[in-house]
Design a protein that fits this description.
The complex is a heterodimer of chains A (386) and B (303).
Chain A lengths: L25 E10 L2 E11 L4 E5 L6 H9 L6 E6 L2 E2 L10 E4 L11 H11 L4 H14 L15 H13 L5 E5 L7 H18 L2 E6 L2 H7 L2 E6 L2 E7 H6 L4 H6 L4 E12 L3 E8 L2 E8 L10 E6 L5 E4 L8 E12 L2 E8 L2 E8 L3 H5 L5 E5 L6 E2 L3
Parallel strand pairs in A: 3-8, 3-9, 6-7, 7-8
Antiparallel strand pairs in A: 1-2, 1-4, 4-5, 9-10, 11-12, 11-14, 12-13, 14-20, 15-19, 16-17, 16-19, 17-18
Helix pairs in contact in A: 2-3, 2-4, 3-4
Chain B lengths: L1 H8 L4 H32 L3 E2 L5 E2 L5 H6 L2 E2 L2 E2 L2 H33 L2 H12 L6 H11 L5 H8 L13 H25 L3 H9 L4 H30 L2 H7 L6 H11 L3 H25 L10
Antiparallel strand pairs in B: 1-2, 3-4
Helix pairs in contact in B: 2-13, 4-8, 4-10, 6-11, 8-10, 8-11, 9-10, 10-13, 12-13
Classes of the chains: A alpha+beta (386), B mainly alpha (303).
């Protein structure tokens, strides 16, 4: 612990050598937790690498906070195993875990000044007073709370409280920092600013962050990897990009960003270099699909669900020259949204959401009587697993 | 408290001030007639002298206070300082004992399922339904030589069989705790009920073990309840003399019966007033020091 010095603001970024080191920061194996009738965790396994910014994303009640509390030691699992840095966490009581938490409510001690709130953890560990002063001053500088050092929590704004809560946890130089929706109570502007600051701070300190949020945009902006949780299970765990570009389940597709789902039946399967080319019969008409090779095997006659992001659908004037995967459609609704425009278009019996950047041709499409053509790029159509 | 009232009063328009005057009128009159005037009379009388027939008369003198401090006609006699000290000790001791019993009790009740809480609180309050004297006599019966309580205690090898358990200091302690516990438990329970347990989790998360979680995360939150409870117990317990009388044997003079004696038996109103005022001053000073030491800890001022 001692040699892990908190960097001063201008020091070079910490080398990424901690990433991919042999023992993961946190390993959960088949964790279960039940509260009465509610199964908060129904067998969750994750492996969180050292130095990683890992987000647990899901709607409220999906079990993400329970998982966080189990890692912190504030909750006991009913079953399964948790390893912290390779050590079985069942043997480590909460107050001895190399883990600190930024609570959703901040949970600052109302009777202590900011300075003493930040120093709390070090005092509990009986760090010498001289060292405490130095470390507290450094972390307050880093989190920009030095000007309020002598205030009581009641005299701080939400954003300031958030920084104090962060400083109070980080000053202990934990192996893992747990953040339970820390930005939830802040207004949008401040939230966006703190998202970036948190991300930079995490990079600089190299501490593993586990970030719980129900805000998918927040998770996208900040994380290295995201576990999307639903009903006590991990629906999908992947890098941010893979999760957005290649969602595997309906839940993941619709929770992270928005997605159009199209039901269909496989008509033809042809192996190709990069995967398989499919021809799928849908309510919109026949569509060509490129399926990734690592996905489940598909046979002719299988019922499948296709997903496509609104911004991947091409919108063309009705008069444009026809091409593959293009279908006649009619604009039902148009909302001008500054840089992007949102359309609802009716294709066959389905209503699809389309998002188009506002430059050139596309904007004028809405001016006509609504007749357009939509284009589905074959690689943008994803075959979901459920 | 002062801050609040000045904040509220400053933007008040005349109409509001009138309304405030009318609504607070009965309370103000009550306090003036029944508290301030008698207190003022007491203060004046304490500087007068006793006449031959127990009447109060001039000249003004500070003799009563001298006598109270022990410097009487017959040289130094610590009788009254000792009585004062004994009463303060009784008050402080009762408050401490009630706190020791009340703290676990308050947490226990707060932890009960909601439907049992009311029952538990009612049980705490039930002693109030009977008169103090009756309760104290009841203890005499329970602690009498032939009662089952006494026999059980003797069976444990404590004391001599056939003896009553009172008069004794233990009996006084039992009587005092039973009488004053509710005064401490109720305000304490109110603040235990409001505890923000996430602070306990935060403390644990930051490396505090059980005892230090209580010390640093819980205790500051229930301090208002503890202060209120201690004051509510300490004030009346200091003036208490019935319980020490009935359960401790009538050998010791307490503050309460010292004052009563001066007013009724000795008919020395000036001296009785001096004793009462000094006792009041001592108690208020104690509370003031307590409040001053705990100032700015986010608790409501009690003074």
């Amino acid at each position: 612990m001692q040699n892990k010095v908190v960097c001063v603001p201008d020091s070079p970024p910490r080398p990424a050598s901690r990433e991919g080191s042999p023992t993961p920061a946190v390993q959960a194996e088949n964790l279960r937790r039940r509260f009465g009738d509610l199964e908060a965790l129904a067998g969750v396994s994750v492996e969180i690498r050292r130095g990683e910014f890992f987000s647990l994303l899901g709607p409220s009640g999906c079990g993400k906070t329970t998982l966080l509390r189990i890692i912190a030691g504030l909750e006991r699992p009913d079953g399964g195993r948790l390893l912290l840095g390779g050590r079985d966490a069942a043997e480590i009581p909460a107050h001895q875990r190399p883990v600190n938490t930024v609570f959703q409510s901040y949970a600052l001690f109302p009777h202590l000044r900011v300075r003493d709130n930040v120093a709390f953890g070090l005092r509990m560990k009986r760090v010498p007073a001289g060292e405490i002063t130095g470390r507290v001053a450094r972390i307050m500088e880093l989190t920009q709370i030095t000007p309020f050092a002598d205030r009581l929590p009641a005299q701080l704004s939400g954003g300031q409280k958030q920084r104090v809560a962060l400083a109070r946890a980080l000053v202990n130089e934990p192996d893992v920092l747990l953040l339970d929706e820390p930005l939830g109570a802040l207004d949008l502007k401040l939230r966006q600013q703190l998202q970036i600051e948190l991300r930079q701070l995490q990079r600089r300190l190299g501490i593993t962050f586990i970030f719980v949020t129900h805000d998918q945009e927040e998770a996208l902006v900040m994380s290295d990897r995201i576990a999307v949780m639903n009903a006590g299970l991990i629906a999908q765990m992947d890098t941010v990009e893979a999760l957005y570009e290649q969602p595997r389940t309906r839940f993941a597709a619709q929770f992270l960003g928005s997605c159009n789902l199209i039901a269909g039946r496989v008509e033809r399967v042809r192996a190709a270099g990069h995967g398989r080319d499919l021809e799928v019969m849908t309510e919109l008409g026949p569509l060509q699909v490129v399926a990734a090779a690592n996905r489940r095997m598909l046979a002719v006659g299988d019922s499948i669900t296709l997903a496509i992001r609104p911004e991947k659908i091409g919108l063309l004037a009705a008069t444009a020259a026809p091409g593959p995967n293009q279908i006649e459609a009619r604009v039902e609704q148009f909302n001008y949204g500054g840089p992007v425009s949102h359309y609802r278009v009716r294709v066959g019996g389905e209503s699809l959401s389309v998002r188009v950047h506002n430059f050139g041709e596309t904007y004028r499409v809405s001016q006509a009587d609504g007749a357009v053509r939509v284009e589905f790029p074959p690689a943008a159509l994803l075959v979901l697993e459920d | 408290m002062n801050d609040n009232t000045s904040k509220n009063a400053s933007p008040a328009r005349p109409g509001m001030r009138l309304r405030a005057g009318i609504t607070s009128g009965p309370g103000v009159i009550w306090l003036t007639v029944l508290l301030l005037l008698p207190l003022g009379a007491l203060a004046v009388i304490s500087f007068l002298s006793r006449g031959d027939y127990g009447e109060t008369q001039l000249p003004f003198t500070g003799e009563n206070y001298q006598r109270l401090l022990g410097f009487g006609l017959l040289g130094f006699d610590p009788l009254y300082p000792v009585i004062l000290l004994r009463s303060l000790l009784l008050g402080a001791g009762t408050a401490a004992a009630c706190l020791a019993c009340g703290l676990p009790l308050a947490f226990f009740i707060a932890g009960l399922a909601p439907r049992y809480k009311t029952t538990a609180l009612t049980l705490v309050v039930i002693p109030f339904w009977t008169n103090l004297l009756i309760r104290t006599y009841a203890w005499q019966i329970l602690l009498a030589p032939e009662s089952w309580v006494t026999r059980a205690v003797h069976a444990l090898g404590i004391g001599t069989a056939g003896d009553a358990l009172y008069p004794s200091t233990t009996a006084v302690a039992i009587g005092m705790i039973c009488d004053y516990l509710p005064f401490l438990v109720l305000p304490l329970y109110a603040s235990v009920e409001k505890i923000d347990w996430s602070l306990a989790e935060a403390a644990m998360d930051l490396g505090a073990d059980g005892l230090r979680v209580f010390r640093h995360a819980l205790l500051p939150q229930i301090m208002p309840g503890i202060s209120a409870g201690i004051i509510l117990v300490f004030l009346p317990a200091t003036g208490q003399f019935i319980i020490p009388d009935l359960l401790g044997g009538a050998k010791t003079v307490m503050l309460g019966n010292a004052i009563e004696q001066q007013f009724l038996q000795s008919r020395d109103w000036p001296f009785g007033s001096a004793v009462a005022l000094v006792a009041l001053a001592l108690v208020l000073t104690g509370i003031w020091i307590y409040a001053w030491k705990n100032r700015g800890q986010g608790q409501p001022d009690l003074l």
